[in-house]
Design brief:
The protein is α+β, with helices and mostly antiparallel strands. The chain contains eleven helices and eight strands.
Length: 197
């Protein structure tokens, strides 16, 4: 039963979450999933999604595992970077222009599109509330994103995030200005920063 042991190792690394994609990636036959469900070792909570019994599903982790082109951004990134206290009701994600968004994503997420060459720029690792690693944009990119999309973001979240970022000691202002130029929000950023600093 070496396969079961390998599956258990994957589940433990992913804090109790398993996708059938994980088995494909590790060349483990999917029949072992059915065996483990029957034995009560895991529960099927959705198509291709399994968790340890009595465990909450990690929606953010699962969504990104199934759709790796999603990068958590905007309001969700603000929350994960502790620049907002408001838990997002829906995930904010950025995808490359031309990416076909399936219903599974659009039902749970606020979608932002960006040019392909800017899509993977400035990504970093973040942690979900259940401890799984996900891809998010760094603080500096997130600030540029909310400035670009300020008309789609709650004004309270927007202004609170800018106030907090102005007080952040480890913010890389050089990097922030570099990103602001690339995302064409340099003037807007300067205007807000003059007021806040």
């Amino acid at each position: 039963m070496a396969y079961i042991k390998r599956i258990e190792n994957i589940i433990n690394k992913q804090n109790g979450t398993l996708l059938s994609l994980d088995l494909d990636k590790n060349k483990i036959p999917r029949t072992y999933l059915s065996m483990m469900v029957v034995e009560g070792k895991i529960e099927r909570i959705g198509r291709g999604i399994y968790v340890l019994p009595n465990l909450l599903e990690d929606g953010m982790f699962i969504l990104q595992k199934k759709y790796p082109n999603l990068i958590y951004s905007h309001e969700t990134a603000l929350f994960l970077h502790e620049l907002s206290d408001r838990t997002p009701f829906e995930y904010s994600v950025t995808v490359p222009s031309g990416y076909k968004v399936v219903n599974a994503i659009s039902e749970k997420s606020k979608i932002y599109y960006v040019k392909k060459e800017l899509h993977l720029m400035c990504t970093t690792e973040g942690k979900t509330s259940l401890g799984n690693i996900i891809n998010i944009y760094n603080v500096e990119r997130t600030i540029c994103d909310i400035l670009r999309s300020r008309n789609r973001i709650d004004i309270q979240i927007f202004s609170n995030a800018l106030k907090r970022v102005a007080k952040k000691k480890n913010l890389d202002y050089t990097l922030l200005m570099e990103y602001a130029k690339k995302f064409n929000v340099e003037k807007i950023l300067n205007t807000y920063m003059e007021v806040l600093i």
